[in-house]
Amino acid sequence: MSNSQNIREKHNEYLFAAVKNFYKEPIVVESGKMFRVQDMEGTSYLDFFGGILTVSVGHANDEVNTAVIAQVERLTHMSSLYPSIPVVELAERLSKLAPNKLEKVFFTASGTEADETAVMLAQLYTGNSELIALRHGYSGRSLLAQSLTAHSSYRALPTQVSAIKHAHSPYCYRCPFKSSSDSCGMECAKDVDELIKTTTTGKIAGMLVEPIQGVGGFITPPDEYFQIVSDIVRKYDGIFISDEVQTGFGRTGKTWGIDHSGVEPDMITTAKGIANGMPLAAVVTKTEIASAIDKNTISTFGGNPVSCAAANKTLEIMERDNLAANSEEMGALLFEGLNRMQGDHPELIGDIRGKGLMVGVELVVDETAKDRTPNSKAVDQLLEETKKRGLLIGRGGLYGNCVRITPSLNIGKDEINEALDILNASFNAID
Q1: How many helical (H) and strand (E) elements, i.e. helices and strands, does the chain have?
Q2: Residues of the chain whose pLDDT is less than 70?
Q3: Do 365 and 372 contact (CB within 8 A), yes or no?
């Protein structure tokens, strides 16, 4: 396996065909340091997708690496059947970081498992089984998570869990109620009440919602949305679950994505950026909700000491360097540059949305002619052009027409400006 072509060929030979890669000729990344990665041929790329929002403090961060190596030399694994120092330290840290009264922690190895645990807890605690999720939402690849997911590209099987009902997404750019920004009456939020009345028994376990819909293309609801739906959910005896798998730990400019709304959830799920790329996820909830599990429960790899050591150091860096504030500041700079590009390409760039360093750009056929037909072909072209110039970005959205931009939270002005220059040249190339 001496070169990238050999790796690509063996990837196609041995991995599931469903494991797709970006680009016509996928990049085989061999190494990385902080904000850049390098392929096998020595080409360097500025990484503005960060392993799908996981590399929160930079590739191969020296401080995180040191913490991981030290833990590996002490202990690599025991399972949740035994207390361990890094696990307990991280649980305490999360409890203090979490919204008010969320103090009990359960670790898993992935966001999928965290969301499943949250659903189970909601059902046990309330005694109800029906759950509200959102269209365009994504919760993972297990059977239950796929039932929660409302994104056909990621659903390999029909819905397996009939108790899950999907509300309209608060997708302002493509409002399901045809409202505009100056006439919005938050019908999408108020419709949750109608949904519960007409499609459930009237008693629900809760609602699981992403503060910004990640795979959905960074759909960013108005803050008022969460105030309305959380009240509705609680009116019907449900609990409000904030899925912070992508939005947690300063990504949006605040510790949690839900913090922007002023709503205190009953439970949060989190993963991705928690450990700078190491596999780890968690559920954090109130004591009384956590106590609803009256059976033995374990997670073999949940709370692995090495992953927890990485997470402790990652969160320490985030707090010490106030990376939530940096996310807000650098995000504002990024938005400013993208808004200028929208002025230069008003037909192609239909919408720019997000918060902090979680920024989405939706490409359409012709915004100036009010033709919002999704333009996934333009995203294909843009990714190839940015790759050619040394910048890695992501994509998403139900229609595959949304660019996702999510650099590490400690990114600086120089890197933001470099990325903007590349994006500008790339938009010019496909215009």
Answers
A1: 13, 16
A2: 1-2
A3: yes
Query: What's the distance, CA 352 to chain centroid?
Result: 17
At residue 174's C-alpha, the angle toward residues 173 and 176, to 5°, is 130
CA neighbours within 13 Å on the CB side: how many for 97? 28
Q: Domain boundary residue among 320, 351, 369?
A: 320
Report phi then psi at 16, rounded to 5.
-55, 140
Contact 242, 257 (CB under 8 A): yes
Let me know whether 14 and 87 are in one domain. Answer: no
Span 1-44, pLDDT tens digits: 568 999 999 999 999 998 889 999 999 999 999 999 999 999 99
Q: CA-CA distances (angstroms) from residue 147 to 150, 202, 331?
A: 7, 20, 33
**Three-class HEC string of 352-400:** EEEECCEEEEEEEEEHHHCEEEECHHHHHHHHHHHHHCCEECEEECCCC
Nearest to 200 by CA among 267, 138, 146, 126: 126
Check residue 26 and give its pLDDT: 94
- Structural domains of the chain, count: 2
